[in-house]
Design a protein that fits this description.
about 140 residues, alpha+beta, CBS-domain, 3-stranded antiparallel beta sheet, two-stranded antiparallel sheet, about 20% strand, elongated
Length: about 140
C-alpha cells in the first residue's frame, strides 16, 4: 500500500509570515505552485494560496490601479492573508486517506508534518502523477 511519503513533494518551498505578498507571488510564479506553506522558526504556521493572494489584491477598499496593487504586494505581509487552520497529513497516512481529506475539505494540497516538522506537501498534481504512473505500469485496472 502506498503512503503519502511515497508520493509527496519533499522539502517544499516555503515563505515566512513576515514576507511581503510579492515574495510569495514570485515564489509561486517561479515554481508554478498554487500554494506555499508558511513557516516561522522551523514551525508551520499556515499556508498561503494563489486564491488568498487574489483575495488580497481584490480588496474593495482600494482603487485598482497599478500603483495601489504594487503597494499591496510590497507592504502587506503573508501572515495577514494566510490560512491558519490547515489540513495536514503525516508521511505514513494512506493515499486513500489523503485523497478523501482533500476531496472532502475541497483543498488542492496538504502539508505533510512529521511531528511539528514540515517534511513535504501532497498536492492534486502529485496524486494525478501517481495515478498516471500506476495506470502506465498496469497497477490499476
Amino acid at each position: 500500500m502506498f503512503r503519502v511519503r511515497d508520493v509527496m513533494t519533499e522539502n517544499p518551498v516555503c515563505v515566512s509570515p513576515d514576507a511581503p505578498l510579492r515574495e510569495a507571488l514570485d515564489l509561486m510564479k517561479r515554481g508554478k505552485f498554487r500554494r506555499l506553506p508558511v513557516v516561522e522558526q522551523g514551525r508551520m504556521v499556515g499556508i498561503i494560496s494563489d486564491r488568498d493572494l487574489r483575495l488580497a489584491m481584490n480588496t474593495p477598499v482600494l482603487v485598482h490601479e497599478k500603483e495601489e496593487d504594487e503597494f499591496v504586494l510590497d507592504s502587506v505581509k503573508v501572515g495577514s492573508c494566510m490560512t491558519t487552520e490547515v489540513h495536514t497529513l503525516e508521511p505514513e497516512d494512506s493515499l486513500e486517506k489523503a485523497a478523501c481529506l482533500m476531496r472532502d475539505k475541497k483543498v488542492g494540497g496538504c502539508p505533510v508534518l512529521e511531528g511539528e516538522r514540515l517534511v513535504g506537501i501532497l498536492t492534486e498534481s502529485d496524486l494525478l502523477e501517481y495515478l498516471i504512473r500506476s495506470l502506465r505500469e498496469g497497477r490499476l485496472l
